[in-house]
Amino acid sequence: MTSLPGSARTRRRRPVDLSVAAVLAVVIACLFLTVGIPVGKLLGAALSPDGRSAILASLTIQTTPLRNTIVLGALVGTLGTAIGFLTAYAQVFLDFRGKRALHWITLLPTVSPPFATATALITLFGKRGIITFHLLGADHNIYGLQGLTIVLAMTFAPVAYLNIRGMFENMDPSHFEAAASLGASPLQTLFKVTIPMTIPALLASFLVLFVEGIADLANPLVLGGDYRVLASQIYFAVAGGGDVASAAGIALVLLVPAISVFAVQKYWAGKKTVITVTGKPTGTVKPVTARTVKYPVLLLVGVWVALVLACYTAILVGGFVKILAVDNSWTLDHYQFVYRLGADAVTKTLMMTLIATPIAALLALLIAWLVVRHLPRAGRILDFVGMLGIAVPGTVLGLGFALAYSGPTWFLGHRILPPLAGGLATGAGAVSIIMVYIARAIPTGQQACISALKQINPQVEEASTSLGASQITTLRLITLPLLRSGVVTAMTYGITKSMTMITAIIFITTPQTKVMTAQILDEVDAGHFGNAFAYCTVLIVLAIASLAINQLNRSMRTAQS
Fold it and tell me: Is Zinc-finger found in the keyword set (predicted)?
């Protein structure tokens, strides 16, 4: 038998770098605190006698909220995906003025609170709305399923737009040239070539929007009316009757379809692909000029743009008039209210966001590093657990935090943490809110860093370790600079989503730790739409500022390189 050279034996027997094990332990501990314990506590409460009764009632007797939730998710997924497809198609395949403006208008809902557009929609299309009553003279009720479908599709359509646009931009133009050479009209090419090739992106977008639609709480509270869904049932069980066990049971009913759809989406993304790039593309996609395609698409996109602009114009103007559509005299009272009574909420929201964002970005980077470089087999499990922060509906996660951290946390008979949620907790509840911000921000940064790491040749890092550098040193000096763009993107997303979040923190906000989105919801509930619009405008400006700083940073780095 031929023996291995001494150098080969040395390489095979090289001890595992303990720094990797230390990083893995830290990541597992953080995920255990931000996801594991809250979900575990929720499951424990859901499986109690009262929780089991609520589950049984939701599935057999009081089935209306479950049925309404599924219908709402399906409609939001369908309409939001259709909007995303049309806007992406217009951006990539049509030639018209204002493409950049369309891009930013499409992304506008991502930088506003989830219920800002719902409040604007009531002002525009309610029974005494500016458009329905004052312009059209109609007595229209926007509350219920139709209003929820429109506002949720508007809120989450940007996700579908970015997903589908990415697939469009990677398509090989030769597919369309071949269809044209075979005599296919532009309309036939759209339905027989373009749409079939985007089926993976369409299905992935539908599943994501379905989960977002069934998980949302703020919009059903504002615009739901008599249309009851599981998320609002959870809220009313806690806020109305204090029945936490029943709320946990209903939350489990909501959790199962959300996790199931998320798992299907992950499987589909990993297994189902359509080859749209075969070798080097033959050129750029020629704009579609056929009137049968161009003008209907632009008309539908124009309706969507008009609706978005109308809603955000109402938000902007509503903060500067006394009562929009009732008393349109100009005033600064609403902004003075925000300055006097809302400055504390603005400051604390910014502070908690700025604390949570870098921690979430660091954890996302470490998870991606472990998944791609050091855990070839267990990486999928760690990747899935890291994504639970967004896969678990915000209402469910928030209730889990309230159950888990309202009292001391015990592990193996030892008290490891004091109370973190509630007004009497450490930091008056701010710690638990920061933890929710972290849990919800990790998944996006994690996926961005995983994608970026897969594009980096491992030999770059192997060269560092072969020269004696530890894995942590290599990560800090070699990998991190190469992933800077992904980390900055993760931080930007974390800032915008944390500042506009309400569903996942509604159960753990306290009077001592005020959050802007909770203050906005209180003003909407009280009918003070002017104050709510002023709050929303301040929040949107802060979110846009963070995006502008990120864009400026990327532009400066591009210029330097």
Answer: no
Separation between Cα atoms, residue 356 and residue 434, nearest integer Å: 5
Handedness of CA 278, 282, 285, 289 (dihedral sign): negative
Asked whether residue 397 carries a pLDDT value surpassing 90, the answer given is yes
DSSP letter at 141? Answer: -
Among 257, 289, 318, which residue terminates a domain? 318
pLDDT tens-digit map of 452-510: 788 777 777 777 777 777 788 888 888 878 777 767 777 887 888 888 899 999 999 98
- Tell me the residue length of the chain: 561
Q: Cα(312)–Cα(318) distance, rounded to whole angstroms?
A: 9
Are 299 and 363 in the same domain?
Answer: no
Written as six digits, the tokens of 283 are 């050129």
- Our measurement of the distance from residue 339's CA atom to the centroid of its chain's CA atoms, rounded to an integer in Å, reads 29
Q: Of 318, 349, 378, which closes a domain?
A: 318
Say which CATH number the domain at 442 has. 1.10.3720.10
Concatenating the DSSP letter of every residue in 59-105 gives IIIS-HHHHHHHHHHHHHHHHHHHHHHHHHHHHHH---TTHHHHHHH
Alpha-carbon distance of 334 to 325, in angstroms, equals 16
**Tokens matching residue 182:** 């075979």
Q: Please name the residues in contact with 166: beta carbons below 8 A apart, sequence gap of 6 or more.
A: 201
Give the predicted TM-score (pTM) of the model: 0.87
CA distances to 13, 83, 193, 271, 455 from 276, rounded to whole Å, are: 44, 22, 11, 15, 19
Q: What does the DSSP 8-state code read for residue 17?
A: P
Structure tokens at 41: 């506590």
Ranked by mean pLDDT, the top range of 181-190, 501-510, 550-559 is 501-510
CA distance 440 to 420: 18
Q: Tell me how many degrees the CA angle 387-391-394 measures, rounded to the nearest 5.
A: 120
